[in-house]
Amino acid sequence: MKLLNCQIDNERFIGLLDNNRTINLSKALKVYSTIYRGEDWFFNSIEDLLSLDNPEFCLKKVADFIERYNLKESLYVESFKTLSPIIRPSKIIALGRNYTEHARETGYNPPEEPIFFSKAVSAIIGPEDAIVYPECLTRVDPEAELGLVIGKRAKNVSKEKAMEYILGYTIINDVTARDMQTEDLKMANPWFRSKSFDTFCPIGPYLVLKGHIRDPHDLNLELRVNGATRQKDNTRNLIFKIPEIVSYITLHMTLEPGDIIATGTPSGIAPVYPGDTVEIEIENIGILRNTVIRG
Predict the structure, then answer these.
(1) Model pLDDT for residues 53-105, shown as the tens digit of each residue
(2) 128 φψ region: left (φ > 0), alpha (ψ -120 to 50), beta (else)
(3) Which of 77, 97, 119, 249 is 20 to 30 A from 10, alpha carbon to alpha carbon?
(4) Are residues 214 and 163 in the same domain?
(5) Which residue segment(s) compose the domain that 225 sits in?
Protein backbone atom coordinates (compact mmCIF):
# COMPACT_ATOMS: atom_id res chain seq x y z
CA MET A 1 0.00 0.00 0.00
CA LYS A 2 1.53 3.28 -1.16
CA LEU A 3 0.29 6.44 0.55
CA LEU A 4 1.06 10.02 -0.41
CA ASN A 5 0.21 13.48 0.87
CA CYS A 6 -1.57 15.52 -1.78
CA GLN A 7 -2.69 19.11 -2.17
CA ILE A 8 -5.13 20.86 -4.50
CA ASP A 9 -5.14 24.64 -3.96
CA ASN A 10 -5.25 24.92 -0.16
CA GLU A 11 -6.85 21.53 0.46
CA ARG A 12 -4.69 18.63 1.61
CA PHE A 13 -5.69 15.00 1.52
CA ILE A 14 -4.20 11.51 1.76
CA GLY A 15 -3.77 9.71 -1.53
CA LEU A 16 -3.63 5.97 -2.15
CA LEU A 17 -1.83 4.78 -5.27
CA ASP A 18 -3.91 2.34 -7.31
CA ASN A 19 -2.52 1.12 -10.65
CA ASN A 20 -0.74 4.43 -11.27
CA ARG A 21 -3.84 6.43 -10.37
CA THR A 22 -4.51 8.14 -7.06
CA ILE A 23 -7.54 7.63 -4.83
CA ASN A 24 -8.63 10.36 -2.42
CA LEU A 25 -8.28 8.25 0.70
CA SER A 26 -9.29 11.08 3.03
CA LYS A 27 -12.69 11.18 1.36
CA ALA A 28 -13.03 7.40 1.59
CA LEU A 29 -12.07 7.42 5.29
CA LYS A 30 -14.73 10.03 6.00
CA VAL A 31 -17.45 8.03 4.24
CA TYR A 32 -16.37 4.78 5.90
CA SER A 33 -16.32 6.27 9.39
CA THR A 34 -19.75 7.84 8.95
CA ILE A 35 -21.27 4.51 7.95
CA TYR A 36 -19.45 2.12 10.27
CA ARG A 37 -18.29 4.13 13.26
CA GLY A 38 -20.81 6.93 13.56
CA GLU A 39 -18.07 9.54 13.84
CA ASP A 40 -16.23 11.87 11.52
CA TRP A 41 -12.71 10.75 10.65
CA PHE A 42 -11.20 13.75 8.93
CA PHE A 43 -7.58 12.94 8.16
CA ASN A 44 -5.93 15.31 5.69
CA SER A 45 -2.37 14.01 6.03
CA ILE A 46 -0.57 10.75 6.69
CA GLU A 47 0.59 12.16 10.03
CA ASP A 48 -3.06 12.42 11.12
CA LEU A 49 -3.34 8.63 10.81
CA LEU A 50 -0.76 8.25 13.57
CA SER A 51 -3.46 9.15 16.09
CA LEU A 52 -5.04 5.75 15.43
CA ASP A 53 -4.05 2.73 17.53
CA ASN A 54 -3.55 0.59 14.42
CA PRO A 55 -3.32 2.65 11.20
CA GLU A 56 -2.53 -0.37 9.02
CA PHE A 57 -5.64 -2.24 10.16
CA CYS A 58 -7.80 0.84 9.59
CA LEU A 59 -6.40 1.38 6.09
CA LYS A 60 -6.96 -2.23 5.12
CA LYS A 61 -10.58 -1.99 6.25
CA VAL A 62 -11.13 1.14 4.17
CA ALA A 63 -9.37 -0.34 1.12
CA ASP A 64 -11.66 -3.39 1.34
CA PHE A 65 -14.66 -1.04 1.68
CA ILE A 66 -13.66 0.81 -1.51
CA GLU A 67 -13.37 -2.49 -3.40
CA ARG A 68 -16.59 -3.97 -2.03
CA TYR A 69 -18.72 -1.00 -3.07
CA ASN A 70 -16.84 -0.25 -6.30
CA LEU A 71 -16.05 3.31 -5.26
CA LYS A 72 -12.75 3.83 -7.09
CA GLU A 73 -14.08 5.86 -10.01
CA SER A 74 -15.77 8.33 -7.68
CA LEU A 75 -12.56 8.73 -5.62
CA TYR A 76 -9.88 9.10 -8.30
CA VAL A 77 -8.08 12.45 -8.51
CA GLU A 78 -6.04 13.41 -11.53
CA SER A 79 -4.25 16.69 -10.90
CA PHE A 80 -2.59 17.60 -7.60
CA LYS A 81 0.72 18.47 -5.98
CA THR A 82 2.53 15.70 -4.11
CA LEU A 83 3.96 16.74 -0.75
CA SER A 84 6.44 14.98 1.49
CA PRO A 85 4.76 11.89 3.01
CA ILE A 86 5.68 13.25 6.44
CA ILE A 87 5.53 17.03 6.58
CA ARG A 88 6.55 17.99 10.11
CA PRO A 89 8.08 15.16 12.16
CA SER A 90 9.44 15.98 15.58
CA LYS A 91 12.89 15.01 14.30
CA ILE A 92 14.94 13.57 11.46
CA ILE A 93 17.75 11.20 12.45
CA ALA A 94 20.29 10.06 9.85
CA LEU A 95 22.95 7.35 9.86
CA GLY A 96 26.49 8.16 8.81
CA ARG A 97 28.91 5.78 7.09
CA ASN A 98 26.45 2.88 7.11
CA TYR A 99 27.75 1.33 3.87
CA THR A 100 31.35 0.08 3.93
CA GLU A 101 32.44 1.56 0.60
CA HIS A 102 30.94 4.95 1.43
CA ALA A 103 32.84 5.04 4.71
CA ARG A 104 36.06 4.30 2.82
CA GLU A 105 35.43 6.88 0.07
CA THR A 106 35.12 9.56 2.75
CA GLY A 107 38.39 8.48 4.37
CA TYR A 108 37.07 6.46 7.31
CA ASN A 109 37.00 2.84 8.38
CA PRO A 110 33.57 1.25 8.76
CA PRO A 111 32.20 2.18 12.21
CA GLU A 112 31.94 -0.31 15.05
CA GLU A 113 28.68 1.16 16.28
CA PRO A 114 26.04 3.31 14.55
CA ILE A 115 26.93 6.95 13.93
CA PHE A 116 23.87 9.17 13.85
CA PHE A 117 23.16 12.86 13.50
CA SER A 118 20.14 15.07 12.90
CA LYS A 119 18.85 17.25 10.09
CA ALA A 120 16.62 20.27 10.59
CA VAL A 121 12.94 19.55 10.01
CA SER A 122 12.76 22.85 8.09
CA ALA A 123 14.95 21.23 5.39
CA ILE A 124 12.07 18.97 4.24
CA ILE A 125 10.67 19.38 0.74
CA GLY A 126 8.56 17.08 -1.40
CA PRO A 127 8.90 15.43 -4.81
CA GLU A 128 9.45 17.79 -7.73
CA ASP A 129 10.30 20.66 -5.36
CA ALA A 130 13.57 22.46 -6.05
CA ILE A 131 16.79 21.91 -4.12
CA VAL A 132 18.20 25.40 -3.62
CA TYR A 133 21.98 25.66 -4.04
CA PRO A 134 23.15 28.48 -1.71
CA GLU A 135 25.63 30.89 -3.25
CA CYS A 136 27.90 30.57 -0.18
CA LEU A 137 28.68 26.91 -1.02
CA THR A 138 31.08 25.37 -3.51
CA ARG A 139 30.02 21.72 -3.36
CA VAL A 140 26.59 20.19 -2.78
CA ASP A 141 26.07 16.41 -2.93
CA PRO A 142 22.84 14.39 -3.09
CA GLU A 143 22.73 11.12 -1.14
CA ALA A 144 20.28 8.27 -1.77
CA GLU A 145 18.86 6.70 1.39
CA LEU A 146 16.11 4.34 2.50
CA GLY A 147 13.91 6.16 5.00
CA LEU A 148 12.04 4.68 7.95
CA VAL A 149 8.90 6.27 9.39
CA ILE A 150 8.17 5.52 13.04
CA GLY A 151 4.60 4.46 13.82
CA LYS A 152 4.47 4.61 17.61
CA ARG A 153 6.41 6.02 20.53
CA ALA A 154 9.68 4.13 21.02
CA LYS A 155 12.12 4.21 23.93
CA ASN A 156 14.68 1.55 24.93
CA VAL A 157 13.39 -0.80 22.22
CA SER A 158 15.06 -4.18 21.83
CA LYS A 159 16.35 -5.33 18.45
CA GLU A 160 13.88 -8.20 18.59
CA LYS A 161 10.89 -5.82 18.82
CA ALA A 162 12.21 -2.89 16.79
CA MET A 163 10.29 -3.68 13.60
CA GLU A 164 7.01 -3.36 15.51
CA TYR A 165 7.63 0.39 15.78
CA ILE A 166 8.01 1.06 12.06
CA LEU A 167 5.01 2.29 10.10
CA GLY A 168 6.62 2.14 6.68
CA TYR A 169 9.37 3.12 4.26
CA THR A 170 10.11 6.05 1.99
CA ILE A 171 12.97 7.63 0.01
CA ILE A 172 15.21 10.36 1.42
CA ASN A 173 17.77 12.54 -0.31
CA ASP A 174 20.23 13.53 2.42
CA VAL A 175 21.56 16.59 0.56
CA THR A 176 24.89 17.71 2.02
CA ALA A 177 27.04 20.82 1.78
CA ARG A 178 30.17 18.72 1.37
CA ASP A 179 32.66 21.60 1.50
CA MET A 180 31.15 22.87 4.73
CA GLN A 181 30.94 19.37 6.25
CA THR A 182 34.61 18.73 5.45
CA GLU A 183 35.61 22.01 7.04
CA ASP A 184 33.61 21.30 10.19
CA LEU A 185 34.99 17.76 10.53
CA LYS A 186 38.56 19.03 10.24
CA MET A 187 37.89 21.38 13.12
CA ALA A 188 36.10 18.68 15.16
CA ASN A 189 32.87 20.66 14.93
CA PRO A 190 29.37 19.18 14.49
CA TRP A 191 28.22 18.93 10.86
CA PHE A 192 24.55 19.71 11.55
CA ARG A 193 24.61 22.93 9.54
CA SER A 194 25.94 21.24 6.39
CA LYS A 195 22.94 18.89 6.42
CA SER A 196 20.24 21.39 7.30
CA PHE A 197 20.01 24.14 4.71
CA ASP A 198 16.45 24.77 3.59
CA THR A 199 15.45 22.23 0.88
CA PHE A 200 18.28 19.82 1.84
CA CYS A 201 15.91 16.97 2.75
CA PRO A 202 13.67 15.88 -0.14
CA ILE A 203 11.38 13.02 0.92
CA GLY A 204 8.88 10.90 -0.98
CA PRO A 205 6.95 10.44 -3.05
CA TYR A 206 5.32 7.57 -1.15
CA LEU A 207 5.10 6.03 2.26
CA VAL A 208 4.91 2.27 1.70
CA LEU A 209 3.44 0.47 4.69
CA LYS A 210 5.86 -2.07 6.11
CA GLY A 211 3.59 -5.05 5.42
CA HIS A 212 3.95 -4.35 1.70
CA ILE A 213 7.75 -4.59 1.64
CA ARG A 214 8.77 -8.25 1.81
CA ASP A 215 12.32 -7.59 2.96
CA PRO A 216 13.61 -4.04 3.57
CA HIS A 217 17.13 -5.51 3.63
CA ASP A 218 16.93 -6.54 -0.02
CA LEU A 219 16.00 -3.41 -1.94
CA ASN A 220 17.96 -2.05 -4.88
CA LEU A 221 18.59 1.69 -4.72
CA GLU A 222 20.01 4.00 -7.34
CA LEU A 223 20.77 7.71 -7.63
CA ARG A 224 20.86 9.33 -11.06
CA VAL A 225 21.85 12.86 -12.06
CA ASN A 226 20.55 13.97 -15.46
CA GLY A 227 19.92 10.27 -16.21
CA ALA A 228 23.46 9.09 -15.40
CA THR A 229 23.87 6.66 -12.51
CA ARG A 230 25.98 7.93 -9.60
CA GLN A 231 25.08 5.54 -6.77
CA LYS A 232 23.86 1.95 -7.06
CA ASP A 233 23.64 -0.60 -4.26
CA ASN A 234 21.31 -2.82 -2.26
CA THR A 235 20.12 -2.40 1.31
CA ARG A 236 21.49 -5.84 2.12
CA ASN A 237 24.82 -4.03 2.39
CA LEU A 238 23.77 -1.80 5.26
CA ILE A 239 26.38 -2.26 8.00
CA PHE A 240 23.80 -1.78 10.74
CA LYS A 241 20.43 -3.29 9.89
CA ILE A 242 17.10 -1.65 10.67
CA PRO A 243 16.39 -3.39 14.03
CA GLU A 244 19.83 -2.46 15.32
CA ILE A 245 19.45 1.14 14.13
CA VAL A 246 16.09 1.63 15.84
CA SER A 247 17.21 -0.08 19.03
CA TYR A 248 20.43 1.93 19.23
CA ILE A 249 18.76 5.29 18.64
CA THR A 250 16.06 4.62 21.24
CA LEU A 251 18.71 3.96 23.87
CA HIS A 252 19.66 7.62 23.46
CA MET A 253 16.33 9.33 22.76
CA THR A 254 12.62 8.74 22.42
CA LEU A 255 11.28 8.39 18.91
CA GLU A 256 7.80 9.80 18.36
CA PRO A 257 5.18 8.75 15.78
CA GLY A 258 6.08 10.28 12.43
CA ASP A 259 9.79 10.61 13.19
CA ILE A 260 12.06 9.81 10.26
CA ILE A 261 15.27 7.80 10.14
CA ALA A 262 17.56 7.93 7.09
CA THR A 263 19.52 4.67 7.07
CA GLY A 264 22.68 5.85 5.28
CA THR A 265 23.97 6.26 1.73
CA PRO A 266 26.15 3.98 -0.44
CA SER A 267 29.34 4.96 -2.25
CA GLY A 268 29.35 7.19 -5.29
CA ILE A 269 28.88 10.65 -3.81
CA ALA A 270 29.58 13.50 -6.22
CA PRO A 271 28.48 17.11 -6.62
CA VAL A 272 25.46 18.54 -8.39
CA TYR A 273 24.97 22.02 -9.85
CA PRO A 274 22.09 24.35 -10.64
CA GLY A 275 20.13 22.97 -13.57
CA ASP A 276 20.71 19.32 -12.64
CA THR A 277 17.87 16.84 -12.09
CA VAL A 278 18.36 14.31 -9.31
CA GLU A 279 16.41 11.05 -9.21
CA ILE A 280 16.55 8.45 -6.46
CA GLU A 281 14.86 5.14 -7.13
CA ILE A 282 14.33 2.44 -4.52
CA GLU A 283 12.85 -0.88 -5.51
CA ASN A 284 9.16 -1.31 -4.56
CA ILE A 285 8.97 2.26 -3.26
CA GLY A 286 9.24 4.63 -6.22
CA ILE A 287 11.26 7.50 -7.67
CA LEU A 288 12.01 10.75 -5.84
CA ARG A 289 12.82 13.51 -8.36
CA ASN A 290 14.05 17.05 -7.68
CA THR A 291 15.79 19.74 -9.69
CA VAL A 292 18.62 21.94 -8.42
CA ILE A 293 18.32 25.72 -8.69
CA ARG A 294 20.64 28.56 -7.72
CA GLY A 295 19.94 30.29 -4.43
Answers:
(1) 889 988 999 999 999 999 999 999 999 999 999 999 999 999 999 999 998 99
(2) left
(3) 119
(4) yes
(5) 92-294
